[in-house]
Design a protein that fits this description.
Radius of gyration: 22 Å
Order of helices and strands: HEEEEEEEEEEEEEEEEEEEEEEEEEE
Strand content: over 45%
Helix content: under 10%
Largest sheet: 26 strands, mixed
Distance between the termini: 74 Å
Oligomer: single chain
Structural class: mainly beta
Shape: elongated
Length: 247
């Protein structure tokens, strides 16, 4: 069996020359299914690749694992997928229970389920996260939509941030955007953050140190240390603001 597997690896090495669509100097563990072609890398079942992967399309499902970086046009991760390195692509779609130990750099990012990223998510266009998301780095994009429960350890920077949280959630860094909309879905949970700076701010059930904006609406049951506004402000009677400043 070991000899046949070695022959299989040698066949792969002989076929690939290290250009787009290839797996570089690979070691592959297969107890499910692994397909490697000029354009596509597919892992399903308990497949593992112990190296960097570069292809047009990378698709992983089941208990799949890639020990290196991924560089591709499209990356689709589902099931219990685990990437130990960074991901650089045009589009990434994650579902199920996905873990990425590095950074994600992309044009568009979609995540649904239990998503864990140990680095940053940097998108040129959109970031959509739905479910239970845990981001240890920063979120940077044009439009960012988050729903469900989540924790972001870093900063959030974008043009428009829309959040609909369903249980206790947290942004440990600062939020800097043009527009910020934060709503609670359901009857439980609060969102905690440090500072929110935007031209337009509409929030509810938020605990923060400072909110600053041109147009500020403090909705239901917020607890804010300081609110700074330039043009107008509206504060719900159920919210508590320690200090209100016109700048």
């Amino acid at each position: 069996m070991a000899r046949k597997f070695d022959e299989y690896l040698e066949a792969l090495r002989g076929r690939f020359k290290g250009i787009l669509g290839k797996v570089y100097t690979p070691s592959i563990s297969v107890s499910g299914f692994v397909k490697v072609s000029d354009d596509e890398v597919v892992i399903s079942g308990a497949g593992k690749i112990l190296t960097n992967v570069k292809a047009r399309t990378v698709k992983c499902s089941g208990a799949s694992r890639i020990e290196g970086d991924i560089e591709a046009e499209e990356v689709v991760l589902s099931g219990a997928s685990h990437v130990r390195g960074n991901v650089k692509c045009n589009i990434i779609e994650m579902s199920g229970s996905c873990t990425i130990n590095g950074n994600i750099k992309c044009i568009e990012c979609k995540g649904a389920g239990s998503i864990k990223v140990d680095g940053d998510i940097i998108s040129e266009h959109r970031i959509d996260l739905n479910g239970a998301s845990h981001i240890k780095g920063d979120l940077k994009g044009n439009d960012i939509d988050i729903s469900g429960s989540f924790k972001v350890h870093g900063d959030v920077n974008c043009r428009k941030l829309s959040i609909e949280f369903t249980s206790n959630s947290e942004i440990q860094g600062d939020v800097k955007c043009e527009e910020v909309y934060i709503r609670r879905k359901g009857f439980y949970g609060r969102l905690r953050t440090e500072n929110i700076i935007a031209k337009k701010v509409e929030i509810e059930f938020v605990d923060a140190i400072e909110i600053e904006g041109d147009h500020v609406i403090i909705g239901r049951e917020c607890r804010i240390d300081t609110v700074k506004y330039r043009i107008d402000v509206r504060i719900d009677p159920s919210s508590k603001v320690e200090k209100l400043v016109k700048v």
